[in-house]
Amino acid sequence: MDVQEIALEDLDVNAFIDQQVKAINEAVADGVAVNALSGGVDSAVVTLLGHKALGERLKTIFVENGLMRAGEPEYIVGLFNGMGVPVVLVDAKDEFFGALAGLTDPEEKREAITQTFYKDVFARLVKDSGATNLLQGTNFTDVEETVAGIKRQHNILAQLGIDTEASYGYKVIEPILALRKPGIRLVGKALGLPEEIYARPPFPGPALAARVIGEVTPARVALVRQATAIVEEILVDSGAFQYMAILHEDRVTGIRDGRRDFGLQIEVRCWETQDAVTADPTALPFKTLQALASRITGEVPGVVSVTYGIATKPPSTMEVV
Amino acid sequence: MDVQEIALEDLDVNAFIDQQVKAINEAVADGVAVNALSGGVDSAVVTLLGHKALGERLKTIFVENGLMRAGEPEYIVGLFNGMGVPVVLVDAKDEFFGALAGLTDPEEKREAITQTFYKDVFARLVKDSGATNLLQGTNFTDVEETVAGIKRQHNILAQLGIDTEASYGYKVIEPILALRKPGIRLVGKALGLPEEIYARPPFPGPALAARVIGEVTPARVALVRQATAIVEEILVDSGAFQYMAILHEDRVTGIRDGRRDFGLQIEVRCWETQDAVTADPTALPFKTLQALASRITGEVPGVVSVTYGIATKPPSTMEVV
Asked: Suppose B54 and one of A72, A172, A283, B58 were both cysteines; which one would form an S-S bond, judging by CB atoms 3.0 to 4.6 Å apart?
């Protein structure tokens, strides 16, 4: 791959927007494009760039995979509708949980989500839409980490030699491939995204499936969804780059009502980083850690233990799987 | 069970020692007693009470089960020899690891260690010694938690209706059954134990096996032993009641030399407590947490992630299995 990074200090936001809008127009020509909106800043920026370039000829789809945070599909569809951008909400929960059943290996889980999304659900939607192009929010860090073999991002296809036109029936356009998160946020702000979205902590492609060690079932996703809501509520003003709750597969001993309870453990991580390449755990006040533990054990059924991630990246990664 | 607790404020240390020495003498009569020294304050106090009562008629055995901390067997035998108390060191590593092979359930692991210790190794040693009595360091919290069903302590037998005389060939004497840790420490101090022992943070009966989630193998014990040494070195002056490293079975994503490394996670716990019935995680300075994570990921092979336990007891317990 020969993508050149546009460093933050070299980024002319308005020129970048004009350039990408023009490039999308040229690539799609008289055709129709689709894109998947996930709610993260990357896909939100791509949606607005595509909408600016193509107007009604961009069909934006929000796939409800059952792995989202509480209320997330409704919130994102509402927000974009509020900005004048139509979004189609597609419920594909059963397909995703069907594909994930019985899988515990992180790579197999990622692969099941990728395949279900691109090959089954999205390919079908694209085919039905008659679109010839897919707009996708791949960014520079995604490419770098995938090429380095650190992490298989869900949205890397062409860079790995996958011919999307032959495999899936559409050509991929990646307008923000040269940017990292800080640059993408600036572009989002300039495009009129509200701060809730352009400054949003990143959320992984496989969504809450990336926050579940072991098998991803509706019940286990429901637990980590509840813990995630608590973590986000408590840490929203922390100023951290990203924060998350992770449901472990390991069982740990606890006590409920004076009796032994072999229960669940939730790990909380909260990261400080400039570029997501290296990162440090946030030095949260101990009172905040206590509040996290108290609410998670008090509210999430079966959780008897909470930990806080204290290792740096590297050797850790920010996500757990 | 009808054991009455002696509360700390009611404890007359010297009277307690005289009383227990007399009781041991009466129970053993002209016989011989054995006891197992583990290195914890409980068994250390019992060893000294027994030695005071019986002199050479007490045979103290240190069983090296392969689950101890680095250098622990040598240190404890040396220390008691220095106090004039003979200790026999018995290597039973292979028997313990043989019994633990393939076991992942915490109760089965505890049971394998209990059975290997009492029924195999120790019963054989007792039989060879001709002893009629076993001195044991069961304390009030052990009994309470076992009766409440919170945790099956390794050293609770008679209280569960197990007739040790019929099952194992000896009668059990439990001199510190009415005391909790703070009282036991006072008795140890009065008996002349050095502070390194009487103020020692508690360590569980199943030793490092209690710090390994999943199968207990020599290799996995070696990893948690190394992490434990780091945690103890860094937290020795923390003033905390107990601190520990736990090897998880869950695998987590990390990066080594720029490449993905699906690695191990160590959880650190550090507890503040008065009575071990309820406990709070210690509010360690964040610099200390960073030092723990940095040294553990830097020195323990394969560890890419470190967490710190932030839940209270209850609903957590202090140990993880």
From this structure: B58
